[in-house]
Amino acid sequence: MLYVTNSSANVKERSDGHYATNKTNNTKMTNKYWFTRKRYGYGATPVTWEGWLLTLGFIVIVTSRALDAEKRPFQFTIELIVLIFVLIIVAMRKTEGGFKWQWG
After folding, report:
1. How does strand 95-96 pair with strand 19-21?
2. Per-residue confidence at 41, pLDDT binned at 50, 70, 90?
């Protein structure tokens, strides 16, 4: 049987007109998304364990730093701004479809 390979689709066309798919996929997923866009509004929701871990880590760090905020309010404010900035940047890069306003 003669096979013609379509490398972009990982499908082989046989000489009898039928198609055979290659069950092994050796390509690595380089851009795995951790978040998906919210259905309404602006923002993202975690959909993988990495996204949930990032969100939970953010909450734990902010909560632990907030317990000491009365002693050093300026330092807490700066830390909070940096943490929010990091969370937003990572979420934007790891959100399927990017950040934009959604109407449903």
Report:
1. unpaired
2. confident
